[in-house]
């Protein structure tokens, strides 16, 4: 039997491909949006995974450094370390700073950690050049995305920091690049006021500020000990908020990026709906262009099923081509996005399913036109 | 020789609208058309030519009456079979004002489309199509698209398509309207030849008086009734 859809597509191949490319670009954007969401999820977990802490001890009644301001004393790490079952315990700080870039300031999240401590937040697998921090002062490790080179000097505050290491793929939960500095430098930057400010405070009768504060204490638990029980003990006796790694992940993925992900989800849904409408309109237009031929075929006595098959198959092929072009398009451009875009096969497969279902729905409008086409329209001018 | 009846119509009526808006187009028409006959259907515009053609073609439902196509009764105050499209597919061929070939199909696909949808195998349909194309002297254009053919060639392909399903009846809607005088005569001669050789009844709606002498009879719609006249063979060109 003659394959009408194939013949029609072959007849207008150029137009069909250009149309599929247009819809494909739209689907490519849908894939990118999904990728942005996946990227946010991955970004949110990069720092947590690199630090690999079992417990995050933060200021009481706060959600911790990623969600709320948190200040605890640095020496809390010693108290935590003394708790039965704790393996390692270190202090850590997080702060947003602007690094002076060549063209414009570069916003980074600076992680301050004890260079001589037992937990190094810089994952060796992410360190692509140089080394981790070795001294207490004026060394910095930056992400390659910042554009800084090894041994380059960066002015932060009143001091020059030397780039001693370059990492790749290190980002904060918000997608900003990460920089690593020593805990002492971080405390100075975050908690130590300028001389003028200290003088001013003294004149007001305020005593000097204790700069030995950190944003969180991180700890690992010895094998065989129950993380939740230790967390509960710390909450009870140290009057601090304590989060396990999973709870911290939940705070990051649910509390912090939930709204953003909902927004992206909604945007994606709208794009899918728009794509469906566009496919439907294209099929409707393609059907309208063939109304004379459809009337003739109906008048000649061709069964509706044969004509409907042609419309549905053309819609499905359009959807398939658009999906392939969309995939190619998204893979060509995703690296150009400033934030991480993670294109995953399950997302692509899900979109493929949606496109096929949407195409079938979109073809209904053409099918309806076929069913209602008047064969008598073939007679006369 | 006993003539086989191709179309028999009894008390056929077609009305549009209701009550004060009722329009009677055809009223109690009865006639028979034999196989092998070429009938010209003429009437002023709006008299009901197309409506009559559509009723015989099982497209437009009559208001009352009986219709037989060949020995099969297809209408008795309602369609006897719901699948009127099947009747068209199996018994009727259509020729239009313009060729109206399916533009995305080549010549041979246009001719084989209907037989294949009737369940004829691709090989058999193609063999029959090639016979017809050879008959019309356009076999060398079998793989061409209609856009690559001249108007006359396209019209011949359209006639070949109308014959592809071995119809008993061909309904032609102004088949010469788009052609000049010489080509019109050529097409009507061809239809006459087909009617005789293929033993098909052909009703051709026309406004073209030049082709009337080539027809066996002239069917007119006058005052909602069907009347037949013999054609004037003396004016043959």
What keyword list fits this structure?
heterodimer; A: 381 residues; alpha+beta; 2 domains; 10-stranded mixed beta sheet; two-stranded antiparallel ribbon; B: alpha/beta; Rossmann fold; 6-stranded mixed beta sheet; 4-stranded antiparallel beta sheet; 10 strands; globular
Instruction: Give the CATH class of the domain at 36-47 and 84-235 in chain B.
Output: Alpha Beta
Instruction: Look up the CATH topology of the domain at 36-47 and 84-235 in chain B.
Output: Rossmann fold
- Largest sheet: number of strands, sense, barrel closure of chain A: 10 strands, mixed
Structural class of chain B: alpha/beta
- End-to-end separation of chain A in angstroms reads 30 Å
Q: What does the average pLDDT of chain A come to?
A: 89
Low-pLDDT residue intervals, each spanning 5 or more residues of chain B: none
Q: Which percent band covers the strand fraction of chain B? A: 25-35%
Q: Greatest chain-chain interface?
A: A-B, 25 and 30 residues
- Show unreliable segments of chain A: none
How many beta strands in the DSSP annotation of chain B?
10
**Measured on Cα atoms, how large is the radius of gyration of chain A?**
30 Å
Order of helices and strands of chain B: EEEHEEHEHHHEHEEE
Count of folded domains of chain A: 2
Kindly state the percentage of residues in helix of chain B.
25-40%
Q: Could you describe the largest sheet of chain B, including whether it forms a barrel?
A: 6 strands, mixed
Architecture per CATH nomenclature, i.e. the level-2 architecture of the domain at 36-47 and 84-235 in chain B:
3-Layer(aba) Sandwich
Outline of chain B: globular
Q: What distance lies between the first and last C-alpha atoms of chain B, to the nearest angstrom? A: 29 Å
Please identify the oligomeric state.
heterodimer
